């Protein structure tokens, strides 16, 4: 019995170390995305849509990696690709809150009940993974907002301006 408890404790410590390593790796990637977002103000206007689009793709890729990592460990599948009739932010928050509440509780032994020890509770998704996922979702949505702003300003779908070099094309425009 004591050997089983010790093995479980060692396993939990190992899982906690792995979760912390994943969190630090995701945090570094997030800081890099935010640094690239800050550099957008130095990008020439004609290159801005492409730069924002590429950054948005990097943020989506990071979000997908985090969700896949959580799915691989917990078997919980986030269905963020489904179209919603209502508010997207509310839909994302509800799905995340539902996933984060999922947990497993070991039944109390007679000894634990008599000594008023609370049973161990193990959340399906660890706190660091949840924080990484939520931060990635916020970055992704922020970049989607920037892309929408570029669309509204007419910069996103604008054809690139090309210099006319031949005399035949100069007279046509």
Q: What brief labels describe this structure?
A:
6 helices; two-stranded antiparallel sheet; elongated; mainly alpha; 173 residues
The tally of helices reads 6
- Fraction of residues in H or I helices: 55-70%
Model regions low in confidence, pLDDT < 50 over at least 5 residues:
162-173
Average pLDDT figure:
78
Beta-strand percentage? under 5%
Structural class: mainly alpha
Question: How many beta-strand segments?
Answer: 2
CA-CA gap between termini: 85 Å
Q: What sort of overall outline do the alpha carbons produce when their principal axes are compared?
A: elongated
- Give a quick account of the main beta sheet: strands, pairing sense, barrel closure: 2 strands, antiparallel
Give your account of this protein's structure.
The protein is mainly alpha-helical and 173 residues long. It has one domain (2-98, 125-158). Helix content is 65%, strand content 3%. The protein is built from six helices and two strands, in the order H-H-H-E-H-E-H-H. Helix 1 (2-38) packs antiparallel against helix 2, helix 1 (2-38) runs parallel beside helix 5 (127-152) and helix 2 runs antiparallel to helix 5 (127-152). The radius of gyration is 24 Å and the shape is elongated. The relative contact order is 0.14.
């Amino acid at each position: 019995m004591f050997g089983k408890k010790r093995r479980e404790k060692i396993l939990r410590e190992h899982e906690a170390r792995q979760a912390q390593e994943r969190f630090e790796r995701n945090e570094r990637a997030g800081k890099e995305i935010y640094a690239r977002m800050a550099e957008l103000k130095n990008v020439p206007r004609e290159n801005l849509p492409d730069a924002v689009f590429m950054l948005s793709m990097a943020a989506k890729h990071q979000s997908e990696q985090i969700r896949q990592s959580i799915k691989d460990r917990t078997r919980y599948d986030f269905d963020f690709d489904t179209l919603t009739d209502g508010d997207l932010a509310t839909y994302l928050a509800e799905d995340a809150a539902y996933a984060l509440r999922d947990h497993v509780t070991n039944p109390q032994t007679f000894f634990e009940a008599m000594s008023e020890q609370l049973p161990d509770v193990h959340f399906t998704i660890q706190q660091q993974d949840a924080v990484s996922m939520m931060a990635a979702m916020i970055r992704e949505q922020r970049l989607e907002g920037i892309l929408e702003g570029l669309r509204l300003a007419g910069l996103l779908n604008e054809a690139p301006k090309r210099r006319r070099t031949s005399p035949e094309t100069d007279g046509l425009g």
